[in-house]
Design brief:
Blueprint lengths: L3 H17 L10 H14 L11 H4 L3 H21 L20 H18 L2 H22 L6 H23 L3 H20 L35 H22 L4 H15 L1
Helix pairs in contact: 1-2, 1-8, 1-9, 2-6, 2-7, 2-8, 5-6, 5-8, 6-7
Length: 274
């Protein structure tokens, strides 16, 4: 299993990078909103591993997250058992199952984006509290996964303080689209997770439910010589440091330190849309 910090760094980088290109799609963006989306995406990037009891997301909230993890793990194992072919490998615990397929990211996006949307139907106050709860959860996941490590109580407190600022940032930029933006960024983070797992020797079921080489849960990924063992030397000594560097570049981009380069890239992308 790829380390939680690596996944979270990839999610942070993806969220920040996507934010810098928002103007290309005629979407409003500012630094507080970009940082918020980056942190939410970092938290979302560890969410697919709720199908494993020892994952950061599964252990982040004690009994509450453990129960949620057990439910997702049971569902994942059941789906795998009912859909596997004779050539699929054994997967009794459901890890790298349904949450890592093409259905996982949009499913997680719909779930967590749908919570504030449905709550909002009952009124502004329920919608606001539901949005705050979802933001807090993903900030906790991000803080628990991103380096450096702190005590859980400290991360809970920090997430609580940041939740209000994050809500105001999102509301100020996307007042009528907050559930949509939360759903999109959660889906993006989950996709980043699945693609990251595809780089490992185990791979990820990115083509489910298509049958490839007789396997419905075919483990797709990078060419075999380029794959690495999750949590081992290559990830710790190469992938993880590069992930920190990538996140650093994304942060600099958000603050405009790479503005000339971004403007050039935006012009190139704009030409593709015209």
């Amino acid at each position: 299993m790829v380390m939680g910090p690596t996944h979270a760094l990839h999610g942070l980088t993806a969220g920040l990078a996507a934010s810098t290109f928002a103007p290309v799609l005629d979407q409003p963006m500012n630094i507080p909103t970009a940082l918020t989306l980056g942190m939410l995406c970092a938290g979302a990037a560890i969410a697919p591993d709720l199908d494993h009891p020892n994952a950061t997301a599964s252990r982040s909230l004690g009994v509450v997250s453990a129960v949620g993890s057990a439910a997702i793990q049971t569902l994942s194992a059941s789906v795998y058992a009912r859909t596997k072919t004779a050539r699929d490998r054994k997967n009794l615990d459901g890890h790298r199952g349904i949450t890592h397929t093409p259905f996982g990211p949009p499913g997680l996006g719909l779930l967590f984006g749908g919570i504030p949307a449905v709550a909002g139907i009952w009124g502004t106050t329920p919608g606001t509290w539901a949005t705050l709860a979802v933001i807090w959860l993903f900030l906790v996941w991000a803080l628990r996964a991103l380096p450096p490590k702190h005590k859980a109580s400290r991360d809970y407190g920090t997430a609580t303080i940041l939740t209000g600022a994050a809500y105001l940032a999102l509301h100020g930029t996307y007042a009528d689209q907050m559930p949509i933006m939360i759903g999109l960024v959660v889906g993006l983070g989950a996709w980043v997770h699945a693609l990251g797992d595809a780089l490992t020797d185990y791979g990820a079921p990115l083509f489910f439910p298509l049958v490839i080489k007789g396997q419905r849960w075919f483990s797709a990924g990078s060419p075999t010589p380029l794959r690495f063992k999750a949590g081992k030397a290559v990830e710790k000594r190469l992938i993880f440091p590069l992930s920190i560097a990538g996140a650093g570049v994304a942060v600099l981009a958000v603050f405009g330190a790479l503005l000339p380069l971004l403007e050039a890239l935006e012009r190139m992308v704009s030409r593709l849309w015209t």
